[in-house]
Automatic annotation (TrEMBL):
Record protein name field: SWIM-type domain-containing protein
InterPro entries: Zinc_finger_SWIM, Znf_SWIM
Record key words, sorted: Metal-binding, Zinc, Zinc-finger
Keyword Hydrolase among record annotations: no
A Pfam family the protein falls into: SWIM
Molecular function terms, GO-annotated: zinc ion binding
Residues covered by the SWIM-type domain: 125-157
Species in which this protein is naturally found: Schistosoma japonicum
Top-level taxon in the UniProt lineage: Eukaryota
Length: 234
């Protein structure tokens, strides 16, 4: 294991890191930020540019999530596990399928109405059947269903998909921008009109910035963002 992974793993073995165990988690964004900032920019202008860059990235993520939610993938698994994978994003579903392959090497050492103890090689992990949590490093660091939770679901029918995903909302389609879950019925896709509207919004934002200055443009963008959020909550 490289040194840059060793020290990070030593301090993040029991922390939610979403699978990132290197020391360049924050540094990876520096190059993107430097593309929009210049040395002669004032602090006020730097904050405005970073805010504008964040809005642009957020809009792109929204469109990508909507497109991904409309795609339907075929998984050669049981009906219950397929229902689980339909709720997850493509990345999380791929990781869960990888965890499913490891189930064959596990066995249950003790099962109670509320807990299930599963042996994984020389180690034993505990799955809470009521709260939907596991004590293994994979679940603690990444917070998606691990191999031990999948085995518990296959052995105990009371350990349902809803319980398993109780603390895995971050990887669900319903959490990511409230887009619809994959199904056989066609879902909403971003139209050309929506994309053109976003382009016009960015163009109008540049005109406001040039004509009225930074302060007015920032206040206008803030009001527009708050108004959009109020509409989405209805």
């Amino acid at each position: 294991m490289p040194k840059k992974h060793m020290w990070a793993a030593a301090y993040t073995d029991h922390i939610l890191t979403l699978g990132n165990s290197t020391n360049n988690r924050g540094e990876s964004l520096h190059r993107q930020v430097k593309r929009f900032l210049q040395k002669r920019d004032s602090l006020h202008k730097c904050i405005f540019k970073v805010y504008r860059w964040n809005v642009k990235v957020s809009r792109r993520i929204e469109i990508e999530a909507e497109v991904a939610a409309t795609r339907r993938y075929t998984y050669h698994v049981s009906a219950s596990l397929e229902h689980l994978l339909r709720h997850l994003t493509k990345f999380a579903a791929t990781r869960v399928l990888y965890q499913l392959k490891k189930v064959r090497n596990l066995y249950v050492s003790l099962a109670t109405p509320n807990y299930m103890f599963i042996n994984d090689g020389s180690k034993s992990y505990e799955v809470d059947l009521t709260s939907g949590e596991c004590t293994c490093p994979t679940y603690i660091k990444c917070r998606y269903p691990c191999q031990h939770m999948l085995l518990a679901h296959l052995r105990d029918s009371n350990f349902t998909i809803d319980i398993m995903l109780r603390h895995c909302r971050r990887w669900m389609h319903s959490y990511n921008l409230c887009v619809p879950i994959n199904s056989a019925t066609p879902c909403f896709k971003p139209s050309k009109q929506l994309l053109q509207k976003m382009i016009n919004t960015q163009r109008n934002g540049r005109l406001i910035f040039q004509k009225f200055g930074e302060s007015f443009a920032m206040r206008a963008f803030t009001k527009l963002e708050n108004y959009t959020k109020r509409i989405l909550r209805r």
